[in-house]
Design a protein that fits this description.
Blueprint: H1 2-5, E1 8-9, E2 12-13, E3 19-23, H2 27-41, E4 48-51, H3 59-64, E5 67-70, H4 72-80, H5 85-88, E6 91-96, H6 107-124, E7 129-132, H7 140-146, H8 179-197
Parallel strand pairs: 3-5, 3-6, 4-5, 6-7
Antiparallel strand pairs: 1-2
Helix pairs in contact: 4-6
């Protein structure tokens, strides 16, 4: 809404002056965000469109949209095309969700998007705000330096004290070295902890790796 407010003149939003790009890692998440943003921004007359490998937009549809929700790979393809420069230069805000995927196989794509955007800022002298989001990013200051954020005013870290429900953390050490026995022991401990709380609290169990 801050970005929208920058283009509010005489009580009217200048829709043709800006675009916001939201980059999400999965198509399912893209569709969810489109639905959420459409509902929230409809009262302001703003158009939100999905742009993925499954959903293609014509140039006129892209021009008519103020918010584009896409995947890293799709936006990478778009920004490589010189023919798309007319609307790319209108992007004033780029939001990258799950920025910790820089450490994943898709990291090079995200790096390219950030580097390309920074180069655009330098060549056009037009500011593009980059917002990076993550719930699991211990080295957030390193990422902030990478996207050239202001470390004093532009970096926000929320620890467990911001949680609406307190989170209790317990670390259990396992010294068993044999892989099969270690896995069995972990399963036994997990089962015992789950049964202690079964029927009393809601539970989510996260696994580091699932073999399918």
């Amino acid at each position: 809404m801050h970005q929208v407010g920058l283009h509010l003149k005489s009580g009217k939003i200048k829709k043709d002056e800006f675009k916001v790009v939201y980059i999400a890692p999965m198509k399912a998440l893209v569709a969810e965000i489109v639905g959420n943003f459409t509902l929230r921004l409809k009262p302001y007359g703003l158009t939100v469109r999905e742009l993925t490998g499954d959903v293609h937009l014509t140039k006129s549809e892209i021009d008519a949209a103020q918010v584009i929700v896409t995947t890293p790979e799709k936006w990478d393809v778009i920004t490589r095309k010189s023919s798309e420069r007319s609307f790319i230069v209108k992007v004033k805000l780029m939001i990258i969700d799950e920025i910790h995927l820089l450490h994943d196989l898709r990291g090079p794509v995200l790096e390219s998007l950030v580097a390309r955007t920074l180069r655009q800022i330098e060549s056009t002298r037009e500011l593009v705000r980059i917002v990076a989001l993550s719930a699991t990013l211990p080295n957030y200051r390193d990422v902030a330096v990478f996207i050239r954020a202001n470390l004093e005013k532009g970096v926000f870290f929320f620890d467990n004290s911001y949680r609406p429900v307190p989170l209790e953390q317990t670390y259990i050490g396992i010294t068993e070295r044999k892989a099969i026995k270690r896995q069995m022991l972990m399963n036994e401990i997990l089962y015992e902890r789950v049964m202690e709380r079964a029927g009393k609290h809601q539970m989510l169990v996260f696994l580091s790796l699932i073999h399918i």
